[in-house]
Write a structure and sequence with these properties.
By secondary structure, this protein is mainly alpha-helical. The protein contains eleven helices and no strands. The protein is globular, with a radius of gyration of 17 Å.
Length: 237
């Protein structure tokens, strides 16, 4: 239970109570926190459809806004820092740029495209079957666990170090089992979403290993955003 609370404290703005637990043990529950987000999306969907059934664009905006509020924009911030780092050629410069609190042109464009693409994709999904979208945040958080287990921490210090240095194969195994169980509830689409994300995550890991020699908190946030965009695009088409 303590590890689950730490997972919520890490990935959301929700504060339950102060507990002491191994940060790496909380990785197991990342997909559970993702399922919480998916459940919030579904609740918003049913409430919205009761009063404004024909305004899918507005609903997609509210769904996205709810995630941004509940995460405190944590993952989007990571994506913007990652995008800004792409303008540098050397690893040390990339890491320095990601530590800079200011946002550059690449970062601004990445955030804009992320938000616009997700709104468009969610709006499209709303015209068909909304339920598989519940699995998306669970899968994207699970891929963050995969990153923590697979790659070393790329910096001497950082917000994600406590999770990465203690990450073990058992954490990934349990997180994957939880995530697959969630996906099974959504049938073929859910299973396909999981395996698409695993394949995409392998490519991301190769890129992060080549360019950064490991993973950072910003890159973990970027992983969540990139996988989310990919899965929403798949559902939209």
């Amino acid at each position: 239970m303590k590890a689950l609370i730490v997972a919520f404290h890490t990935l959301t703005i929700i504060r339950i109570k102060e507990v002491e637990a191994d940060f790496s043990d909380s990785l197991v529950y990342f997909p559970v926190v993702g399922l919480f987000f998916g459940s919030v999306f579904l609740m918003i969907y049913f409430l919205w459809k009761r009063f404004l059934p024909d305004w899918n664009l507005g609903l997609s905006f509210v769904i996205l806004l709810s995630e941004i509020i509940l995460t405190g924009g944590l993952h989007i911030d990571g994506l913007s820092d990652f995008a800004d780092s792409l303008g540098a050629s050397k690893r040390e410069e990339k890491l320095r740029i990601m530590e800079d609190p200011s946002i550059g042109v690449f970062g601004s464009c990445a955030v804009f495209l992320d938000l616009i693409l997700r709104i468009i994709a969610i709006s499209r999904i709303l015209s068909d079957d909304i339920t598989p979208i519940v699995a998306v945040p669970a899968i994207s958080r699970c891929m963050m666990v995969d990153m923590c287990v697979s790659l070393p921490y790329a910096k001497k210090e950082g917000t994600g170090k406590a999770f990465v240095i203690g990450a073990q194969e058992k954490h990934r195994l349990y997180a994957f089992l939880i995530c697959i169980t969630i996906c099974i509830f959504f049938g073929t689409k859910g299973i396909m979403l999981f395996f698409i994300s695993v394949f995409a995550n392998q490519l991301l890991k190769l890129f992060f290993k080549k360019e950064f020699k490991g993973i950072t908190g910003d890159l973990l946030g970027s992983t969540n955003e990139i996988i989310t965009m990919l899965l929403l695009f798949f559902l939209a088409i």
